[in-house]
């Protein structure tokens, strides 16, 4: 499925704006075994329950009245209301009652009922992520919803139309932990003219708040890029002409096979250009002069002429986090890949027996041929090597993707996928038992979470 950029086409008296889908949200795959809470091992569930009770106390809620409220210190700061903190985001928690220990915190508040010192995971508030476990969402939808909104807001500047200014503006931005697009982070990566850059920045500053991205349930800052293409009538005509030449090089209309050009792309003779997007062409030269044709006679038949094409983005080894057309999997999006992954992964029996659970976060690169490059499989975090090995095993079995593209040309893209293995004491579901380590689908909580359960004999 192709994912074209946002395209603004300007003619003498009218403008047309179109858009299509891009990267989807990043749902989390969770594998659990046994029964009970599908998100925690028995030990982890107990710890999280305890943490939750302390958070309630810090917030002046049950189980303690306001008169018995702790002084709560989170990452070195006194906090009055912790009701929005997810217990799962806590790295460590220490309850202090000793008078000597309490003195250290007296300058921060009332320590008479005790002090709770909480350290949260991911304490680097300024850290920015390209990929997170739960990708940001916009007005209840995904990146496509944002593109539709952007499409409705952007206007092709009249002075740019009159001057024949067109091209692609690529803008980079950060979505903060509060869901806002941080104005100071708006950065133009490339642009044909300041007039177009200003229009894109103007609209980006009007964006409603997003639901921020999250790691381990905690809101984090995420970086993104969006391309916006402004096409004048003249450029649209040029692209159409390029497309006709590509058809000719491929032996299609408008010329029969007997009149086919010899087509040279980035220095190589190419027989079939039908997969090349005209928008990916940096330059195109049609040669008919006999002296000019001699340079290419060793590459093929030059009797009908030679077309020399130079493509944009010739650095084949460059890796991108965001591209104009994101990779697709078996005709679908990232959700299709997660469904496939869900069907393949098995909870290792030895991990079930040992009560080993947690999240494996794996990073990988999809190459220009659509394959997941085995040498790029990298475990970013994992609770145990047993679980890491199972995730790597399945990733190596992945069918080929349709690669990501910039300006119509296939490029390498980097991705991360979280796979959570969870054991628990009581599941409360029916359906019989299966072999240890086998998995079965129990529920799907929106696009953000896929739960797979493995039952122990």
In short:
The chain has 457 residues and is α/β, with parallel strands linked by helices. Helix content is 21%, strand content 31%. The protein contains 10 helices and 27 strands.
List keywords for this structure.
10 helices; disordered N terminus; disordered C terminus; 8-stranded mixed sheet; 457 residues; 21% helix; 7-stranded mixed sheet; 31% strand; alpha/beta; 27 strands
Describe this structure in words.
The strands form six sheets. Strands 3, 19, 21, 22, 24, 25, 26 and 27 form an eight-stranded mixed β-sheet that branches. The protein has helices spanning 42-58, 99-102, 143-153, 158-163, 194-204, 233-249, 290-293, 334-344, 349-354, 385-395; strands at 6-10, 15-18, 28-35, 71-74, 77-78, 90-96, 115-120, 128-129, 137-138, 167-175, 187-190, 210-211, 213-215, 218-232, 262-265, 268-269, 281-287, 306-311, 319-320, 328-329, 358-366, 378-381, 401-402, 404-406, 409-425, 440-445, 449-454. By secondary structure, the protein is of the alpha/beta class. The two termini are 43 Å apart. It is built from ten helices and 27 strands.
């Amino acid at each position: 499925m192709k994912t074209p950029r946002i395209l603004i086409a300007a003619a003498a008296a009218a403008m047309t704006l179109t858009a299509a889908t891009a990267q989807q949200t990043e749902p989390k795959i969770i594998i659990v075994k046994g029964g009970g809470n599908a998100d925690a091992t028995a030990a982890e569930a107990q710890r999280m329950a305890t943490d939750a009770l302390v958070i309630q106390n810090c917030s002046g809620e049950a189980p303690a009245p306001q008169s018995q409220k702790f002084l709560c210190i989170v990452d070195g700061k006194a906090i009055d209301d912790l009701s929005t903190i997810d217990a799962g985001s806590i790295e460590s928690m220490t309850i202090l009652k000793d008078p000597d220990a309490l003195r250290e915190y007296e300058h921060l508040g009332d320590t008479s009922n005790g002090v709770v010192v909480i350290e949260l995971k991911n304490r680097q508030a300024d850290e920015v992520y390209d990929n997170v476990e739960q990708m940001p969402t916009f007005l209840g939808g995904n990146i496509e919803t944002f593109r539709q909104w952007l499409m409705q807001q952007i206007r092709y500047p009249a002075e740019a139309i009159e001057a024949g200014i067109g091209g692609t503006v690529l803008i980079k931005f950060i979505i903060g932990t509060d869901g806002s697009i941080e104005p100071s982070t708006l950065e133009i990566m490339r642009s044909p003219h300041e007039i177009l850059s200003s229009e894109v920045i103007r609209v980006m500053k009007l964006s409603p708040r997003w639901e921020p991205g999250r790691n381990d349930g905690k809101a984090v800052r995420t970086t993104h890029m969006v391309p916006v293409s402004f096409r004048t009538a003249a450029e649209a005509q040029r692209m159409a002409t390029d497309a006709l030449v590509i058809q000719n090089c491929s032996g299609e209309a408008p010329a029969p096979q007997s009149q086919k050009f010899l087509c040279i792309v980035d220095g190589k003779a190419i027989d079939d250009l039908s997969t090349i997007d005209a928008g990916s062409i940096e330059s195109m030269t049609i040669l008919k002069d006999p002296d000019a044709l001699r340079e290419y006679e060793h590459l093929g038949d030059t009797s009908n002429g030679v077309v020399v094409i130079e493509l944009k983005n010739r650095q084949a080894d460059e890796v991108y986090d965001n591209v104009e057309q994101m990779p697709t999997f078996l005709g679908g999006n990232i959700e299709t890949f997660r469904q496939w992954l869900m069907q393949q992964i098995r909870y290792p029996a030895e991990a079930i027996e040992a009560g080993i659970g947690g999240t494996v976060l794996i990073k990988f690169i999809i190459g220009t041929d659509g394959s997941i490059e085995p040498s790029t499989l990298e475990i970013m975090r994992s609770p145990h090597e047993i679980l890491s090995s199972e995730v790597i095993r399945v990733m190596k079995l992945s069918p080929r993707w349709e690669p990501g593209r910039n300006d119509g040309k296939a490029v390498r893209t980097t991705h991360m996928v979280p796979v959570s293995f969870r054991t628990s004491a009581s599941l409360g579901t029916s359906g019989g038992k299966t072999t240890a380590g086998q998995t079965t689908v129990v529920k799907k909580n929106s696009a953000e979470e896929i739960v797979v359960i493995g039952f122990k004999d």
